[in-house]
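WARN no homologs supplied; continuing
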Amino acid sequence: MLSFLKKYSLPAIALFYFALLVLAALIEEYEVYFVIAAVFFTGLVFIPWLIWQVILVVRLKNERKKSELLHLKSQVNPHFFFNTLNNLYGLIKRDPKKAEELVLKLSDIMRYSIYKAQEERVTLEEEVEYLNNFIELHKMRYHKKIDVDFHVDINQGYKVMPLLFIILIENAFKHGVENLRENAFVHILLTTADNEIHFEIKNNFDESIASEEHGIGLNNLKRRLALAYENKYHLRLARDNGEYLAELRLKNL
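OK structure emitted
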């Protein structure tokens, strides 16, 4: 049946169906038989063909969705890796021990970004470990005091799309910490309750050089949320008095 449905197109099926109806109308003595044949044709061929076409459309849509998500994930963190490698080059001679620690952290982060990013969902515990490595690596890069607080209060059984939160954390360091000479802070909260994941991050920034435009990272995040979570998420971005707040709520899928 499937080979038949794949082989014959809608015009041919429609033409055959139309021919049956015409014959039924023209040859009155066989009208009942033609009507019965048309009904059987509709139930056994046309409707299954129509269902098959819907399945193909859904499959194609899902494949395009997966392809776009993988492409968006591949855009996360590239410039961070380049910046870290530049820092590593300077550390090798100045502080070999710290350079060694940085290499190990970077290795863990790259391994997660390459392999775990291919998965549709990861456990929240895995994502937290990745975020901790990322934060520690950032703290090692800077030669200034930074107030970084990452508070985690999560339950088991929660899963999340990988590399979502990292975009918001990276923005906090890139647009906040990097541009402040002193008193820079990044406060992060990650909790779970009532089958919902709540992520919140607040940082200060230099208002004199802050931009109102949303970068590639935030556009990437919004698109991935729309594709993967549809209407099962809430993202709030706010800035006030030199502080930036990002809040993301996700349903546990």
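Strands lie at 122-123, 146-153, 159-160, 184-193, 196-204, 233-240, 243-251.
OK
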